[in-house]
């Protein structure tokens, strides 16, 4: 009787254990989560939707999570993704430091994280980070900046203003460093003011308006993104200097591409959110299929768009 | 009693050995210095070694520029797949090329050369910037680097070597009408290919 009870209990235990396993994995497609910093900005909408579409095309079930620029909400999304059995996370982090702990959580749960466009400041947290080559893009802009301003006399003094993005953002400084790695070679180029406008169009306009009060004779303005370039251009129009002062941006936003076409803005660096998103989805697929040797960071080329080659970009890219 | 004392002695020795091997003291300065030296990348030394022991030997395998230009016009995809390199992904590709021709003109920013194959190109002498020299040979692998700023610094240092060792002497000795043999790097956008304003960053030049 005792042995019969023992065998019964033993079988019951086996069945109980069996019932706890996840039967769905073999039949249903694996899932890939896309966690994006914000869906309020069309640029990030393109990034998230392209990543999800590419993962879907590769045979995965996908879901987009909007972190609303809030690290705590991003943390909830990570917990959700871990519990729901996602096989990979394509992440556009809200904060390069604040998102580390979230990515580490996924890593500890055995889920690979692929960063898109923005980086996390830890090589261990993400399997691979696919990022715009901000530095090299701004090297190209810096070269064009010098070339276009050195036309009259090679050593004539040039005064310029730099408007920075968010000072806590790595992209801000990579762009600034790339630009200065070229421009600082030329001693006649003098930066009369360097101020942050937080990547914001209206702030950039206000910042440049006040700089122009102190330095009415500037020759050019370099801005860390296109929104600020548009704001700077507005300030120059209001001051009646739009034709005398060259404005340079970064991003490749449609309104700036059109302004380059109209000769209002000199140049920008065209980023490709589509390339970053597709690559992240492909890498996730490769990881799930067994590949492990990924480069920690992969730069995505930024193309210089200027007065000479704008005709190549006649159709605005779908964003 | 002697048995017990022997036991205590063995235990004490064992404890001593374990304690000696598990606890040690080092000056904080030394720890900081040693951890710094292992993680700090030296772009100047890396660029110098890469230049002398990898890039210069690789110039012998550069693609003939005339042949490349013909192939780019007839079969762009094949030309890009076979001869271009880039550490990043996207449309910007770099080629390691060689050519020979006659100097037509010398300006502040470049030296115009008519190639034996008929095309006219410019050898850059002023704006030596970007990643063309670092990437064109395809010898540096992205997996060697965890930090993209290290990669950027390698480009900066390679360009500095080039300005000093190649461009300055070439600029000083170049004369219109003289023949020039060069190996260099070019940058092309594979989506928006323009072969008419080709600018070559010289890596080695012989003019006579």
UniProtKB/TrEMBL annotation, chain A:
<dbReference type="InterPro" id="IPR028082">
    <property type="entry name" value="Peripla_BP_I"/>
</dbReference>
<dbReference type="Pfam" id="PF13407">
    <property type="entry name" value="Peripla_BP_4"/>
</dbReference>
<protein>
    <submittedName>
        <fullName>D-ribose ABC transporter substrate-binding protein</fullName>
    </submittedName>
</protein>
<dbReference type="GO" id="GO:0030313">
    <property type="term" value="C:cell envelope"/>
</dbReference>
<comment type="similarity">
    <text>Belongs to the bacterial solute-binding protein 2 family.</text>
</comment>
<keyword id="KW-0732">Signal</keyword>
<feature type="signal peptide">
    <location>
        <begin position="1"/>
        <end position="17"/>
    </location>
</feature>
<dbReference type="InterPro" id="IPR025997">
    <property type="entry name" value="SBP_2_dom"/>
</dbReference>
<dbReference type="GO" id="GO:0030246">
    <property type="term" value="F:carbohydrate binding"/>
</dbReference>
<feature type="domain" description="Periplasmic binding protein">
    <location>
        <begin position="32"/>
        <end position="291"/>
    </location>
</feature>
TrEMBL record, chain B:
<dbReference type="InterPro" id="IPR014582">
    <property type="entry name" value="UCP033535_lipo"/>
</dbReference>
<keyword id="KW-1133">Transmembrane helix</keyword>
<keyword id="KW-0472">Membrane</keyword>
<dbReference type="Pfam" id="PF10054">
    <property type="entry name" value="DUF2291"/>
</dbReference>
<keyword id="KW-0812">Transmembrane</keyword>
<feature type="transmembrane region" description="Helical">
    <location>
        <begin position="6"/>
        <end position="25"/>
    </location>
</feature>
<protein>
    <submittedName>
        <fullName>DUF2291 domain-containing protein</fullName>
    </submittedName>
</protein>
<dbReference type="InterPro" id="IPR036215">
    <property type="entry name" value="TM0957-like_sf"/>
</dbReference>
């Amino acid at each position: 009787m005792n042995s019969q009870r023992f065998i019964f209990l033993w079988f019951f235990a086996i069945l109980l254990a069996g019932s706890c396993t996840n039967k769905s994995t073999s039949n249903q497609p694996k899932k890939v989560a896309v966690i994006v910093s914000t869906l309020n900005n069309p640029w990030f909408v393109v990034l998230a939707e392209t990543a999800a579409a590419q993962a879907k095309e590769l045979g995965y079930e996908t879901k987009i999570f909007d972190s609303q620029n809030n690290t705590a909400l991003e943390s909830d999304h990570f917990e959700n993704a871990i519990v729901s059995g996602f096989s990979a996370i394509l992440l556009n982090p809200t904060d390069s430091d604040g998102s580390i702990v979230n990515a580490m959580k996924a890593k500890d749960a055995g889920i690979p994280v692929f960063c898109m466009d923005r980086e996390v400041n830890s090589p261990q947290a993400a399997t691979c980070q696919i990022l715009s080559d901000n530095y090299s893009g701004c090297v190209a802009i810096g070269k064009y900046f010098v070339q276009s301003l050195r036309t009259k006399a090679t050593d004539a003094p040039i005064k310029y203003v730099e408007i920075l993005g968010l000072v806590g953002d790595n992209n801000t400084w990579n762009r600034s460093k790339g630009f200065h790695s070229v421009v600082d070679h030329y001693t006649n180029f003098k930066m009369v003011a360097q101020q942050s406008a937080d990547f914001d169009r209206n702030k950039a306009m206000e910042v440049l308006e006040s700089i122009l009060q102190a330095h009415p004779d500037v020759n050019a303005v370099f801005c860390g993104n296109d929104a600020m370039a548009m704001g700077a251009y507005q300030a120059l129009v209001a001051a009646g200097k739009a034709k005398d002062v060259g404005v340079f941006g970064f991003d490749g936003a449609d309104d700036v591409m059109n302004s380059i076409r109209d000769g209002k803005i000199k140049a920008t660096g065209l980023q490709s959110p589509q390339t970053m998103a597709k690559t992240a989805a492909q890498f996730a697929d490769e990881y799930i299929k067994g590949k492990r040797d990924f480069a920690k960071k992969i730069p995505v080329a930024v193309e210089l768009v200027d007065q000479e080659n704008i005709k190549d970009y006649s159709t605005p890219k779908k964003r | 009693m002697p048995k017990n004392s022997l036991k205590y002695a063995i235990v004490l020795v064992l404890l001593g050995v374990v304690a000696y091997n598990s606890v040690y003291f080092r000056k904080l300065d030394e720890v900081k210095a040693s951890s710094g030296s292992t993680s700090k990348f030296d772009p100047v030394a890396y660029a110098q070694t890469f230049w002398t022991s990898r890039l210069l030997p690789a110039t012998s395998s550069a693609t003939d520029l005339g042949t490349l230009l013909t192939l780019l016009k007839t079969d762009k995809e094949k030309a890009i797949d076979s001869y271009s390199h880039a550490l990043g992904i996207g449309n910007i590709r770099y080629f390691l090329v060689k050519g020979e021709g006659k100097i037509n003109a010398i300006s502040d920013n470049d030296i115009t050369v008519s190639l034996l194959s008929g095309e006219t190109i410019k050898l850059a002498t002023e704006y030596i910037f970007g990643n063309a020299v670092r990437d064109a040979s395809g010898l540096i692998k992205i997996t060697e680097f965890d930090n993209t700023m290290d990669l950027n610094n390698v480009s900066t240092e390679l360009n500095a070597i080039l300005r000093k060792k190649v461009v300055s002497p070439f600029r000083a000795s170049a004369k219109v009408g003289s023949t020039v043999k060069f190996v260099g790097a070019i940058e092309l956008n594979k989506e928006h290919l323009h072969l008419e304003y080709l600018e070559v960053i010289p890596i080695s030049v012989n003019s006579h």
